[in-house]
Design goal:
The complex is a heterotrimer. Chain A is mostly helical. Chain A is 86% helix and 0% strand. Chain A has helices at 2-28, 33-51, 55-63, 68-98, 104-127, 130-150, 155-168, 171-197. The longest helix of chain A is centred in the middle third of the chain and has 31 residues, at 68-98. In chain B, 34% of the residues lie in helices and 29% in strands. Chain B has helices at residues 42-49, 67-76, 93-100, 109-118, 132-145, 162-176, 214-220, 233-236, 256-263, 274-288; strands at 3-14, 17-27, 31-35, 57-62, 65-66, 78-81, 150-154, 182-187, 199-204, 207-213, 222-226, 239-245, 248-253, 268-270. In chain B, the strands form 3 sheets. In chain B, strands 6-7-8-3-9-10 form a 6-stranded mixed β-sheet, sandwiched between helices. In chain B, helix 4 runs antiparallel to helix 5. In chain B, 40% of the residues are buried. In chain C, helix 1 (13-26) packs across helix 3 (50-62) and helix 2 (39-46) packs across helix 3 (50-62). Chain C is elongated and about 55 Å long. In chain C, 22% of the residues are buried. Classes of the chains: A mainly alpha, B alpha/beta, C mainly alpha. At the B-C interface, helix 6 and helix 7 of B face helix 2 and helix 3 of C.
Chain lengths: 201, 289, 125
């Protein structure tokens, strides 16, 4: 399974190098770093997913000494890894530019939101096709951002205040949320496994 | 003789298509040609052999092991050639090597380089620019580089030009030279590859018709030609399929000796090609339906 | 070892191999103890299946022309004169038998057949 993760990293290397300056550009825009981290983590996770989506590629992966369980699981592990990478960039940014440490609550929030989003995106994409979903989701994010910026709508503000609310929760409440999100993530994993194990290539 | 692949009573429903009670074996150290028309279940059978599909009923064993308990172990020892490009298109062969190398315990980089040189494959060109022949050589290079004991090929000759088909023949015979490897390939174009096949496995409409030594086909089967007046209800039973015309009949028999006994010099018999087998089996099946 | 295979021939390929190897052994072109190419090598050289060469070698071994040593390969046998004679005798017997059958079919008596045989035998010399 480690090999599958490595494979995705090698395949995504160029994409990641390309995305890094864009990500930094986004960070300079003074928008919420949680919001930016969320988008980029999801983009990387979904890109890794899309790379292996063609039936021919699945034929190859299944002919290689990997099990279907490992193939699906590598995507779920991969998501966490990509999020770690993105969070590390945010950490570095906060330290270098703002001379602050990113709070653990914010960090957890990023992970939670990525996991929640992926919990819906992966099973959906295994069942249907990620192609439309990916374009649609990214487009939607883009539009929201643009609209919010142009009209100075409170959309982002509402989101931000939700983020702020969550961040303001106390330790045990956050722990409860974390457990809840992890649970959703595990359920999603199990659903994806079931869908994928029935696929015919 | 040792069996590398064994299918025992395998049933599989796929949409409206069905494989029924498949029993077949693939012998170690030989080349087995897997033959049948389009849509008779060749690809489905191959997918079952590679665990791309699981049987509804019955047992699939490879190297005497079952996928349920030994999936990775089995796949470590299989090399595959598909009839379409299954690799990432936007990367080069050098990059592909990096992706595949860690997957196999027995990966041999020196061997990979050797075959890349021998097959004149470009390491720095994107895979999407590869021709059908180059893709086939790529798959074989990968299979040989991880010392695959069993090489499964799905329609390897379709879309290849005759010159390359001949070249492939040489390559395959070379692979077989040490006697430790087994090759199983499916095809519906039987031309030159049936020359090097040791065993022929023939399926029709999702059912196993026979597995025989290739030379047995010309010993048992024959194309029989004769006057139409020779045919009656009894004699027609000797044939698998018959093509009648105003100038006579042409038919396939699975019992050449008996035909000689029954008709003697009244008919002409000829060596059947594998295409003849497929044609008359299909024709016969249609007549009796 | 020279072997030429015809794909057009009515004779099965394994038989073509058998006949040609036998001829070369009987002519002394292949000497006793000489190693034959391995089945897989021969198959590769001729572009035919391994099972075909295997069958040819088995046939040759059965008839005592070659013997095989596990792990070493196949070799030309010492041609035993007694054995060869015996084999030839068997062939002669069969041929004579069909001559007898044919004679009986058209009613040629034994004396006439012997006469014919004597005549043919002397003529050859």
């Amino acid at each position: 399974m480690f090999n599958l993760l490595k494979k995705d990293f090698i395949l995504q290397k160029n994409t990641m190098i390309l995305l890094l300056p864009i990500f930094i550009l986004f960070l300079t825009q003074n928008t919420s770093s949680i919001w930016n981290a969320l988008i980029f983590s999801i983009a990387l996770a979904m890109n890794a997913f899309a790379l292996d989506e063609k039936p021919q590629i699945n034929k190859m992966l299944n002919a290689l000494p990997y099990t279907r369980k490992e193939i699906v699981s590598s995507k779920y592990f991969g998501t966490l890894l990509y999020t770690v990478l993105v969070v590390l960039v945010v950490f570095a940014w906060d330290i270098l530019v703002h001379s602050t440490f990113t709070g653990w609550k914010e960090t957890l929030l990023i992970f939670g939101l990525v996991m929640l989003a992926i919990s819906f995106l992966f099973p959906f994409s295994y069942q249907f096709k990620s192609q439309y979903l990916l374009i649609g989701t990214l487009g939607l994010f883009g539009i929201i951002m643009v609209v919010a910026r142009i009209f100075d709508l409170n959309m982002a503000g509402t989101l931000m205040s939700t983020f702020e609310y969550i961040v303001s929760l106390n330790g045990s409440e956050i722990l409860l949320l974390a457990v809840l999100v992890s649970f959703v993530y595990l359920i999603s994993w199990a659903i994806s496994l079931t869908i994928y194990s029935r696929k015919v290539f | 003789m040792e069996n590398v692949i064994e299918l025992q009573g395998v049933n599989k429903m796929l949409g409206s298509f069905q494989l029924t009670d498949m029993n077949l074996t693939v012998k170690k150290g030989f080349i087995t040609g897997f033959i049948g028309g389009n849509g008779v279940g060749k690809s489905t059978t191959i997918k079952l052999m590679m665990n791309l599909l699981q049987p509804d009923k019955g047992v699939v064993k490879v190297f005497g092991l079952e996928y349920k308990q030994h999936e990775k172990e089995i796949k470590q020892r299989i090399g595959f050639v598909f009839d379409e490009n299954v690799y990432y298109e936007h990367i080069t062969l050098a990059q592909l090597r990096k992706l595949l190398r860690p997957a196999y315990h027995n990966w041999d980089d020196a061997l990979f380089d050797e075959y890349v040189r021998k097959f004149e494959l470009p390491l720095k060109k994107k895979i999407k620019t590869f021709s059908k022949g180059m893709l086939m050589k790529t798959s074989l290079t990968i299979a040989l580089s991880h010392h695959a004991e069993l090489i499964i090929m799905d329609e390897p000759t379709s879309g290849l030009d005759p010159v390359f088909r001949r070249e492939l023949l040489d390559i395959l015979q070379e692979i077989m030279a040490d006697g430790t490897k087994t090759i199983f390939f499916s095809t519906h174009i039987t031309s030159d590859l049936d020359k090097i096949a040791d065993y022929i496995t023939f399926i029709h409409n999702g059912e196993h018709v026979f597995t025989k030594e290739a030379f047995r086909i010309e010993e048992d089967y024959a194309i029989v030609k004769g006057g139409i007046e020779l045919l009656d209800r009894d004699t027609e039973k000797e044939f698998i399929g018959i093509r009648k015309s105003s100038s006579g009949f042409e038919a396939l028999t699975a019992n050449k000796k008996k035909i000689h006994d029954v008709f003697g010099d009244l008919v002409v018999t000829e060596k059947p090609s594998i295409e003849d087998l497929m044609f008359y089996t299909k024709k016969g099946a249609e007549t009796y339906v | 070892m020279q072997i030429i295979i015809s794909n057009q021939s009515k004779e099965p390929i394994y038989e073509q191999i058998c006949v040609q190897v036998k001829t070369q052994i009987l002519k002394g072109e292949l000497e006793a103890g000489e190693a034959l190419p391995s089945m897989r090598q021969l198959a590769k050289d001729l572009g035919i299946s391994v099972i075909t060469t295997k069958r040819a070698y088995e046939e040759l071994e059965k008839n005592g022309f070659i013997y095989s040593v596990v792990g070493k390969g196949s070799f030309v046998s010492e041609q035993n004169n007694e054995m060869m004679k015996e084999r030839k005798m068997k062939v002669i017997e069969e041929q004579l038998l069909s001559a007898v059958e044919n004679s009986k079919e058209i009613g040629i008596p034994l004396t006439e057949l012997i006469e014919l045989l004597t005549l043919l035998y002397r003529e050859e010399n």
